[in-house]
Amino acid sequence: MLRKLLVMAVVAFMAIGFSLDAQAEGTVKIGAIYLLSGAFSTYGQFAKNGIELAADEINSSGGILGKKIEFVLEDSTGKANVGIQAARKLVYQENVDLLMGLDSSGVAKGLVPVVPELKKPFIITHAASPDVTGSLCNKYVFRISLNIAQNTKAAALIAKELGVKKWTTIGPDYDFGHQSWEFFGNYLKELDPEVVLSADPSFPKFKAEDFTPFINKVISDKPEGVFISLWGGDLINFIRQANNLGFFKQNFKVLMSLGAATEVLTALGDQMPEGIWVGTRYWFAANDTPTNNNFVAAYKKRFGDYPSYNSQGAYAAVYAYKTAIEKAKSFEPDKIIAALENLTVDTPSGELLIRAEDHQAVVNGNWGITKADKNYPIRILDPIRIFPGKDITPTPQESGCNMQ
Amino acid sequence: MNLMTAFVAALLNSFDIGILLFIIASGLTIVFGVLGILNFAHGALYMAGAYFLLTLMGTVGMPFWVGVLIAPLGVALLAVLIERFLLRRIYHRHPSFGLLLTFALLLIIDDAVRLIWGSGYHIVEPPQLLRGAASLFGVTYPLYSFFTIGMGILIGIAVWLIFHRTRIGKTVRAAALDPEMAQAVGINVPIVLTVVFGFGAWLAALGGALAAPMRTLGPAMGDTIIIESFIVVVIGGLGSFPGALFGALILGGIHGFGGRWLAEWNIVLPYIGMALVLLWRPEGLMGRR
Amino acid sequence: MRKKIQLGVLLLLAVVLVLLPKVSPFFIVFVATEILILGLFATSFNLMFGYCGLLSFGHGAFFGTGAYVAGLLLQHLQWDFIWVLAVAPLAAAVGATLIGWLCVRLNEVYFSMLTLAFGMMVFAIAHQWRSVTGGSDGLAGFPLTEVGIGLDIVLANPFHFYYLTLLIVALSLAAIYLLTISPFGLILRAMRENTERVAFAGIPANRYRLYGFILSGLFSGLAGALFATFSRVAVPEMSHWTQSAEPILMTILGGSQYFFGPLAGAAVFLGLKTLITSYTSEWMIYLGVILLGMVLFLPKGIFGLLERWLGGRT
Amino acid sequence: MTMPFLEVANVTKAFGHFVALRRISLTVREGRTTALIGPNGAGKTTFYNLLSGRLQPSEGTVHFCGRPVSGQPPHKINKMGISRSFQITNIFSELTVLENVLVALIAHLNLGLRFWRIVNRDKKLAARGMEVLERLGLGPLASSRAGTLSYGDKRLLELAIVLATEPKLVLLDEPTAGMTPEETHAVIRLLRSLAAEGKYTFLITEHDMNVVFGLADHIFVFHHGELLAEGTCEEIRAHPEVRAAYLGEEVD
Hints:
Chain A folds into two domains: 214 residues, Rossmann fold, CATH 3.40.50.2300; 159 residues, Rossmann fold (3-Layer(aba) Sandwich). Helix content of chain A is 43%, strand content 18%. About 1% of the residues of chain A have low confidence.
């Protein structure tokens, strides 16, 4: 009996579920695809916070051209095929007007070539693979977040200033880690041909948990500078283990390309070493503009934390859509796309320009040196170095984009 | 650093990783040996141990030493309920149902932890006494790691003594060898199974609590551990307790030395190791046919 | 009587599947395509599990091989799709021959663990061999070609692709079904119960297991090739153990003792997943609870229950 | 017929330090029903395992019709014409009775890789299977699931699987163990009539001396892993050492 009920419930649930298709008039629907489950779900949560905040702000001040924002989240689970199916679901089943999202480069690279079939604009807010606005670029896809090329160009500029010549890396053993090192190395070589890049860099497997062998190896190799592209939980593990082994007291400079991410600084607290160069896609204290101050204050009030870069990216994307739609005075996908090209958007991370040639935003890079400050529960950046987007963004020719 | 110190560092690293794996995998192998269930949710219980400790130390404000004792007991209690109300219903079915049921538990516990503690990262501070590093043969190594190695050895000896030198141990082994016979001579087999599952979970959670000061706490942190534990028990011999030690040290060695000298192969070395053992001695290095 | 009911249900299913795109919301076509492909994957897995008694935890290796070979052929050679579909499963079958040759001598959980190990080795190759496989990002953006042999089918058109998938999956299931009722299928079923007895009756048991494994790998590779084309990517996760776990889940859910069990399991599993993810980002916990209920209350899977309702076996 | 039928030369089987069989040499002649007796632990089952390929001898050789048996896997030995039954009933209980026999027939006729044939539609194959079943009186049960048979019928089905591969030498491991006296008598009659057909040569182990003396033309006695004696029923009955070691307790 129980079994019958169970199965009938499941069947009924499925039947009802698939026929539900409520589309309220007078709303603009945004579909967002992020990592919502598993080890990296914190990034999806951040993005959700950003969208929620932006949507509520916009809705309470009249919406976009009078339409309220409604958003639907889907889980990419970090797998490209899941992300692609989620995008189809958002467009065909949920009837969304606009798409945004993507944390993982792998998902982005898989999904981007499929977006033209869906015929909706898509703003990427996190995934950093250069190819997405490079060799794989297309009319529908935009990115407003810092990509690998931009961030590593900033890192290379710092490395040049530091003046040390012998560099190695510790990065996760997947495409992001390898690409970060390639880009960093190439930029640095251009800036300073005398630089020597390690022939035997360290790529611990992703989610390795134990970085001790790599820490020991780098210490014993005695480089002059170490470029670290680990991120998230890996970076936290790495820093704690490195602290124990005196890694940060060695005679080499350390650059962490994603070291100023708030989820890392929050977890580590005073375990985060001071005096280290760290980068991030957005730093909450980097811009003293009304847009940023309002965002940080509203975010802190609502979620009790300093906003993460991923919240900022999602927040900015919603506003980018708003700006574009108001410029286009239309909800037609093609018109929105046209409006997004060459659009200047005022975001918490500063003004950014979405280039028409490759749809990559020319966006500032944020770096700084970690410092303890008793007014903050986390390490902050002092001094902060902001690299203007135009100085660190490769030209459209360099990015390899061929729009149609 | 010369080759010698690099070697010692890798060796220490192997023990550090291996002993922790041993604590966790021994729970898995004991549960398999007695209940015949390969517990997919074992890694989730490891995670629960770490998060329980986080709350006991953070919200409740217990010192590490108390928390590390209590957190695993809490998880063991949870496991007892799982055994009593869920697992018990499927012992008579094909082993694949055990795998499926514990997989469902993995999904539930993973998400429940995320709902309760959030999706962000957390760390647990080691106790004051164990902060910093010590030097051994010219190698600097975290003090806390020496502590986990010591704890692992103590736990190993204690568990071995329980199984081989006490009445309880004999009862459990009898129940594992022939449940019907054991029942006939007056052993309450269902209770034995409950206790053993709780004990296995206790070991997993203890591993989690001990790992907490070394590892980042985050969602799904048990997912890598569970596969590593499978590899350990297969290399050592399914159901063999000494095998779990042996297998854990081998896998620790693979990580310690492979991580140092064969890093780009690191994602596959454990599997190559497991395949070689299975082809050479399918029953595992210490297992019985 | 039972035969007639079965035939009737099958006919009804066929009609529903053929008419589906005409009546369902557009997105359901995608869900149905995915169900068909993964249903084929699960059915080929079940050739080893349900019929031969060997639980492979590494079938992602063949699924992934099929996906990558299809992706590479489309990316670099732009072959007509029909030839891609012919070659990709063969590549998977070659892989299954090598891996199977080593694995079939083991039994039970040892077989499962050895296949897990080889599956993860294939994953590692896909993940690390960056110059060929595209590393962790995999192959993406490969073009979709003509189907070939004069067929006017556009792969990018979801309806076309659905019907093509339906045809291929139906033909494959028919082929696998014929296998299971052939003398070979009888030997497999006998080996599930007692491999040694079969050997003492004069059958080289391990070689037959290997043949079964190769066929199972072949169809898994076909499913992989279809899936890569459907998803437009070939990524390392397709051979990860989490991918290998999916057909296991689907098969046990649907009922491993029934030929259509894995397909039914795929339908329920993917249907639930698609649905729950629309309502909540905590889909894992809901899926977990539903799975738990099914394990506890449906010992013979969904199909076992359906059969009882239709008055079949008691 | 100069070639010996089954020739076992100097066979020893040791498991570590334990020697299960020590330097056994014997010859089984074609057409002569032969029994192998001995107390529990004498090494009879080990000996069967060596003959059927489940185990390999530590030393010595086994030849069948001049071809080496030792070193061959079970399925090849079966193809040479040696087929065995098991002490513990070893049938496919999920399959039907007919399917059980078909498995053996498919093996024997090398039909296993006819992927395109449908087993249930193959009338010729079914007829052959039915023939074997009828011969053993299992015909009416052909479509029952094997697991539902009575114990005695399961033992008969086991014999049917063995005979379906048309072996020259049939190794039976305690074929009447656990049967009722009526069933035992039936089996003795059946085996006698099968032997009389001249197609099969039986090698039988048995605890039941009535069965042994009722069937065997020739008897080997194993004791502590060694061949203690051989001869006709009368010779064995009269053999002093056999009486002392074994028969004393069982027959008198």
